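Before the break, one more example. Copy the sequence into your notebook; we will annotate it together after we see the structure.
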Amino acid sequence: MTGNHKDTSISRRRALAVTGGTVAAGGLAAAGYQTAFADTASGTSAAATATSTGSACMTLMSSVTEGPYHLDGALVRKDITEGKSGVPLTLRLTVVDATDGCTPVAGAAVEIWHCDAWGYYSGYTTANPGGSAPAESEEGDSANDDTYLRGYQIANANGVVKFETIFPGWYTPRTCHIHVKVHTGGAQEDGTYEGGKVNHTGQLFFDDDIAEEIFVLDPYAKHTGTYTRLADDMVYDGGGASSGLLTLKAVHKRDPSKGYKGFLTLGIDPDAENTGAGSGGGGTPPGDAPTGTPPSGAPGDSASPSASSS
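Here is what the structure looks like once it is written out:
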């Protein structure tokens, strides 16, 4: 399947961990929602809880294409919305070493990027999202067109990072998704993350029923056309949590506009490198797309307003 590019190399430590048994897709949720969403400064990750109670370590996450919309130099910040309107989404991701009993990977840098409610990426705002959508400039938000909905967070001692963002929209021919990279060995510098290597390149996915519930709300509803469901996506391979399918919990069960909380454990091999570069899939950006780092005046944490409810 196009774009489903997996790293098939297996180190000795990784082989020992994987053959020792795996948790079924989504099984780590059994450690408890309250545990997974504990405060990042003191909470215990779902993966750590599962391991401590004798459960086998989960499989390594599937590595897939980074797609055509990655940009270097994303900012280290928790809130990446920059005023983009949409249904609020809080992400809590836990990075664990799947080759060493799912121990937390403290200090790992988790990078995410995704499109806005109409399917546009920062840095590529002239790329047609397919179907019928207003021009990105018509939203009238305060977002910086080179940096919105992109950012890094550094994992705490429990391997946990948290992002505040909005529920992504969609673009042809892809299903709703968020791109993710896990970096180790680098350091924060000038507001971004430099050096080290990429251990995992993946994508986070959303249940079809929840996505379609969101897409009838404003501003998402202004983008019309054919939405690609998970089963028809060129990247998602049906593997559930090990393929990036998020566990989602509504903030208010009867009002999806109030937002969602999503969590997933990212099982990586800290000795491996998988950038996802050049593996295709996900569309083609315009030829005049920007390169390099964001401008010095790009908003960081102190300037990023909270995600607004549609």
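Helices lie at 12-19, 33-36, 46-52, 208-214. Residues 1-56, 286-310 have pLDDT under 50 and may be disordered. Try to locate both features in your own notes.
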